[in-house]
């Protein structure tokens, strides 16, 4: 008998949310606020811990310059992602930021959750950043729908071991988890760990299909392909 899908694990950038929102709104916001944020909060334990980690990785290089280099490279380095989350928090709380979601996403997430499917997130953005985006989203606070949030602390998104660790963290066999992402190498790693996979090929994001995984243009397309409940 076929193993049922009991959990949807979703990426954010290029999957639930526009690549442009991350690259043209979130990243420039963090870059513009970096110095003022560090000047104001550098002594706080959470920020001091991040800066110590940056210093440890960067060695002789000035930590602020290192952060700027990582930002320019879109490096998925855990201390940078943690710091970006801390900087975005103020923007979400005072209304300067609102988490973008494609219009098809929230209705499907709600329908899947109502039908008893578990929902989880795996993004390079920190868990705090994930909760902020879904908590202050254009479709309202969606955080109660999710029972798992995973970031690069579990491992890199192109590493098979990360997906095995996530399945273990969810107390599920990997085969019951369907991973949604726009990035082929992430899907390859998830499939190697035994997860089901679907590539989101959103025309508005200009995503190219890789041809190695089932493809959908949006979340209703995912529902059709995998026999999941439809929204509405
Ligand atoms: C939590 S939103 C910010 C996403 C982010 O920082 C990023 O680097 C994109 O990562 P993803 O794994 O969602 O593609
Ligand atoms: Mg992505």
Set down the secondary structure blueprint.
Blueprint: E1 7-10, H1 19-41, H2 45-58, H3 63-73, H4 78-93, H5 105-114, E2 118-122, H6 127-135, E3 148-150, H7 160-169, E4 177-181, H8 184-192, E5 196-200, E6 215-216, H9 219-226
Parallel strand pairs: 1-2, 1-4, 2-3, 4-5, 5-6
The structure holds the ligand CSCCC(=O)C(=O)COP(=O)(O)O and magnesium ion.
Ligand L4RZE5RM is lined by residues 11-13, 22, 26, 76, 81, 84, 123-125, 129-130, 133, 157.
Notes on the structure:
Keywords: Amino-acid biosynthesis, Hydrolase, Magnesium, Metal-binding, Methionine biosynthesis. Its EC number is 3.1.3.77. Its cofactor is Mg(2+). It is an enzyme of class 3 (hydrolase). GO terms for molecular function: 2,3-diketo-5-methylthiopentyl-1-phosphate enolase activity; 2-hydroxy-3-keto-5-methylthiopentenyl-1-phosphate phosphatase activity; acireductone synthase activity; magnesium ion binding. With 232 residues, this protein is α/β, with parallel strands linked by helices. α7 packs across α8. Strands 3-2-1-4-5-6 form a six-stranded parallel β-sheet, sandwiched between helices. It has nine helices and six strands, in the order βαααααβαβαβαββα. The protein folds into two domains: 139 residues, HAD superfamily/HAD-like (Rossmann fold); 72 residues, Transcription Termination Factor Rho, Rna-binding Domain, Chain A, Domain 1, CATH 1.10.720. It binds ligand L4RZE5RM and magnesium ion (MG). The ligand CSCCC(=O)C(=O)COP(=O)(O)O binds next to α1, α4 and α6.
